[in-house]
Amino acid sequence: MRKLLLSALLLCAAVPSVFSQTATVYTPSESNLEARRNFSKDRFGIFIHWGIYSMFAQGEWYLNAGINEHEYSKVAQAFYPHRFNANEWAKAIKASGARYVTFTSRHHDSFSMFKTAASPYNIVEATPFGRDVTAELAQALHNNDLSLHFYYSILDWKRTDYPLGRTGRRTGRVMQENYDSYFDFMKKQLCELLSNYGNVRGIWLDGYWDHDSDTIPFDWRMEELYEYVHSLNPACIIGNNHHISPLRGEDFQMFERDLPGENKAGLSGQEISRLPLEMCQTMNGMWGYKVSDQNYKTTRELVHLLIRSAAKGSNLLLNIGPQPDGTLPDTAVARLRGMGEWLSRYGKSIYDTDAGCVDEQDWGVSTQRGDTCYLHVLNGTKNISFPMKWRISEVKGFYNGTSVTWHQDKKTGMTTVDLSEGANARKGVDTYDNIVLVVLKKGRKKI
Hints:
21% strand; eight-stranded parallel sheet; TIM Barrel; single chain; globular; 9 helices; alpha/beta
């Protein structure tokens, strides 16, 4: 193991300044396509925003509020998350029914939550804690059969070689902008993340939008970075939270605080691609821990969000902001437990499904696997109707298989389902959140 780690460090230290000067057509490997398929099957993941910003308890953007970066950095000397237990985190996440974790390896404040030779500003060298929490978490996730993804910030509010964008302008840095230098730094860190922590299924990049107001378009050299990541691990799926249509070399498309096709938060107006989809959302209001933010969504709201996300053919990446002592907030753990209880009964209607054959209605949504369509009636309506272009062969309750009264107009396809009995009988409705699940079998013929 020590020899392998040394080899990885030497490999990452030898990263050339330019990997490829010529853009090529991106053809994903078969292992990458398989990773995409598995990613889409998962449907539910957990986002973890944790760094030294938790010490201030003001969220992950605190340094951007006009704080001097030299003063901000001093908190690393007191960062000692003595109650951090990676196995407890993994068990709580496993109990939620989530199937993967995206962990913030380095956020915009430049602090690395992993041991890195690219900068001493990391949790092992700059804190009295001195432990590689990323290594511990990676091992715990692997032990619990949870896939590992890494969030990585491509913008930086501390480093002087990062070309200044529209954020991080008041941190007191004396800028010496050099994107070649900064680009090499990013590649060295990504090499370490992909070399030292077992199987890493995904890289989640953030910060591209920092240069969206430049008078001269900024060249992030993203395709070159993607090509480099895929050279290290062809199976690794890459996504970029840039709020625009996917760039060449990306393997999944993400939507921030919105379901695909919606743009309520103003960050997701881009068109929906044919790549695997993921929407990320906070459990309360902030990504990083904020002591005053106790406005948690109810478990019912989170279950509905998961269902509506799957009905869009998208994964839900639900965020938790751990506390400075290394523990997950009690309310967050309770929400995870509640979602896990629901998924333990109804997960078949979420995992490995696609967007359903019934478009979103005022009563709810649908998911689908093969010819089986799951109708998620989210508001307790006793009778539902919907247009359906396929002939229906069967309708029954999800949990107990009870027959349900239904009728389909053979000319128009308009279908009605009576939920006053059958599906709404005992064990046919989840009284916890008033969701009725109906199984609909499609016939082979269209209307």
